[in-house]
Design a protein that fits this description.
Blueprint: E1 4-13, H1 19-26, E2 34-42, H2 49-63, E3 68-76, H3 86-92, E4 97-99, E5 113-114, E6 134-135, E7 139-143, H4 144-153
Parallel strand pairs: 1-2, 1-3
Antiparallel strand pairs: 3-7, 4-7, 5-6
Length: about 170
C-alpha cells in the first residue's frame, strides 16, 4: 500500500498570531490526496527563532512512518498573510527550495531577495520567478530531502535546545 503524502506546515513564533493569519492557515489549499501536520514552535526565551526552526524540522522528520511520507516543509511565519493558493503555487516550481517574497518591517519596506553575498536586495516584480542566492524565510517551501541530506551528509552541531542545527541565528 502506498504511503500517504503529507506536508509539514511549520511556524516559528514569538507568541500570539492574528485572527487573519489563523484564518489564512485554515483556508490554505493542499494538493489532492495529501494531508498536512502543523509544527508550531513558540519562542518563549526570545531570540531563539532558529532553534524553533530546528525543532520544527526535527518534528517533521519524526512524523514519517510506514503509512505516511512527508515530502516538504512549508515555512509560514506568523507575521505573513499569504493567499490560499500559496502552497500550490510554490509546489508548481518543483524546486528543492521555492520562496514567496518577504519584506522588511520598515517605513520603506525592502524585499528580502538577495542576488549574492553583500549585494543588497533585488527589486520585487509581481508574478516573476527567478533564481536567487538568498531570501527571507517567511513563506518558503523546502523539500524534506534537503534536510535529510544535511542530516546524513553533514556533521551538524546541536543547537541550545538539543536539535540538529539546520538553522543558526547570527551572533
Amino acid at each position: 500500500m502506498p504511503r500517504m503524502k503529507f506536508i509539514a506546515v511549520a511556524t516559528p513564533s514569538l507568541g500570539a498570531v492574528s485572527i487573519e493569519w489563523a484564518s489564512a492557515l485554515r483556508g490554505l489549499q493542499l494538493p489532492l490526496n495529501s494531508g498536512y501536520a502543523e509544527c508550531f514552535c513558540r519562542d518563549d526565551l526570545g531570540g531563539k527563532i532558529a532553534e524553533c526552526r530546528n525543532m520544527c524540522v526535527a518534528k517533521a522528520l519524526s512524523y514519517e512512518s510506514d503509512r505516511c511520507e512527508f515530502t516538504h516543509i512549508l515555512w509560514l511565519d506568523d507575521d505573513v498573510l499569504f493567499p490560499r493558493t500559496a502552497l500550490l503555487r510554490l509546489l508548481q516550481h518543483d524546486r528543492d527550495i521555492a520562496s514567496g517574497v518577504y519584506f522588511t518591517k520598515a517605513d520603506q519596506p525592502d524585499p528580502l531577495i538577495f542576488p549574492g553575498r553583500g549585494c543588497g536586495t533585488t527589486p520585487f516584480v509581481p508574478d516573476q520567478a527567478f533564481e536567487t542566492w538568498g531570501h527571507g524565510m517567511g513563506l518558503t517551501l523546502i523539500k524534506l530531502g534537503v534536510y535529510k541530506h544535511m542530516r546524513d551528509e553533514l556533521k551538524l552541531p546541536r543547537d541550545e535546545l538539543g536539535s540538529p542545527q539546520w538553522y543558526k541565528t547570527p551572533d
